[in-house]
Design brief:
Layout (H helix, E strand, L loop, with lengths): L11 H9 L2 H12 L5 H8 L3 H13 L3 E7 L4 E6 L1 H4 L2 H14 L23 E2 L3 E2 L21
Antiparallel strand pairs: 1-2, 3-4
């Protein structure tokens, strides 16, 4: 996707971008997560993406284990593209990216709002500390290399 691997970098962001760091991939995942798109024609219609690019991106997402193909017709041979657990786990990242876009790239205000289908409340993404709760200032976030990483506090 990016044409470069980041195996030598100790950075999960760089490695994640290798898999989903291209706009069409993220938009396909967005439509699968939040609009219920599963079929090639759904993605093509909603995104207006060139067919060769859509084919490549769907194949890449399947190869990466983010989606899986499920045949729903033999004549003609047609498939659903379904998110795997790995793909569904991208929801918080997309919600966080949406919130950033709402603040910095939406001059007329947020164009969409995520809501919890069970209770109807708005959904947001927060950065929280395992011991003290919410982190309001991003400058309070630091990096710790494993094994010193306090992430084990969530377990």
């Amino acid at each position: 996707m990016l044409g470069k691997t980041y195996d030598s970098q100790v950075c999960s962001i760089a490695r994640s971008l290798e898999v989903v760091g291209e706009r069409w991939s993220l938009l396909i995942i967005r439509d699968a997560l939040f609009a219920g798109s599963t079929r090639y024609s759904d993605f093509q219609r909603s995104l207006g993406i060139a067919t060769n690019i859509l084919k490549d991106r769907l194949e890449g997402l399947v190869e990466a284990g983010i989606m899986r193909r499920h045949q729903y017709s033999q004549q003609p041979e047609l498939y659903d593209y379904l998110l795997t657990e790995k793909g569904r786990d991208l929801a918080p990242a997309l919600i966080a990216l949406t919130e950033w876009g709402d603040r910095w790239a939406a001059p007329d205000g947020p164009p969409i709002c995520y809501s919890h289908t069970v209770c109807g409340s708005a959904i947001g993404h927060e950065v929280v500390g395992a011991r003290c709760g919410r982190v309001d200032d991003p400058s309070e976030c630091g990096l710790d290399q494993v094994p010193a990483c306090p992430r084990n506090a969530w377990s």
